[in-house]
Write a structure and sequence with these properties.
Elements: E1 2-3, E2 6-7, E3 19-26, E4 30-39, E5 44-45, E6 51-52, E7 61-70, E8 75-76, E9 80-83, E10 89-97, E11 103-110, E12 121-128, E13 134-139, E14 146-155, E15 166-174
Length: about 190
């Protein structure tokens, strides 16, 4: 963290596996850091005896973990699992925090784990309380379209009479257009 004109660094993990794609969000006194914790089974041998190494094939583990920083006590909470890797591999991750310390992490899942297909990419998100406990975990999409590039924002809508700050989640989706162009952008008719 940066304070008083200088940086203080803290190592967040102590393991022998890759940690990738960290994202950070803060409200000024608390912060959340989430990242991918991954591992691979290593090189594979093809039928013709050729050894192939794919350093981005995280077939053993592809999870999202997080830690919460409390600026008042200047301490990091314990590492917690946000996504356990059972629904697909992680392709994108983003974080945001409300002023009360509630945090959200949104991510893209590749349901079949293959880069050759894109129609199985889905958006999911998790919300954590200001104390760092996961309170909500939702798969926002479940369709046959490409869904990717989630973006989060903390917003107070001017028309809300309660003045409550809320998360807004948006993402890119690619839907099929019917061949004649006259069908709605809902993937075409069923006839």
């Amino acid at each position: 963290h940066y304070a008083g004109g200088s940086w203080t660094t803290t190592r967040l993990t102590q393991n022998g596996t890759p940690d990738l794609a960290p994202v950070v969000a803060t409200n000024g006194s608390k912060a959340v850091v989430a990242w991918r914790a991954v591992s691979s089974s290593g090189p594979s041998v093809t039928a013709d005896g050729v050894t192939q190494v794919n350093p981005t094939n995280f077939d053993q583990k592809d999870t999202i973990v997080y830690k919460i920083y409390d600026g008042d006590t200047k301490t990091w909470g314990s590492e917690q699992t946000l996504y356990n890797g059972t629904s697909g591999s992680v392709k994108a991750i983003v974080a945001e925090m409300l002023q009360d310390g509630t945090a959200a992490v949104a991510y893209t899942l590749d349901k079949d784990g293959s880069d050759n297909t894109t129609s199985d990419r889905e958006i999911a998100y998790s919300v954590m309380s200001a104390q760092g406990n996961e309170v909500l975990n939702v798969e926002a999409t479940n369709d046959s379209y490409l869904d990717e590039n989630p973006q989060l924002a903390a917003v107070t809508f001017p028309t809300d009479t309660d003045g409550e700050e809320r998360f807004v989640l948006g993402w890119y989706t690619q839907q099929a257009v019917a061949q004649d162009g006259a069908e709605a952008l809902d993937g075409g008719s069923d006839s």
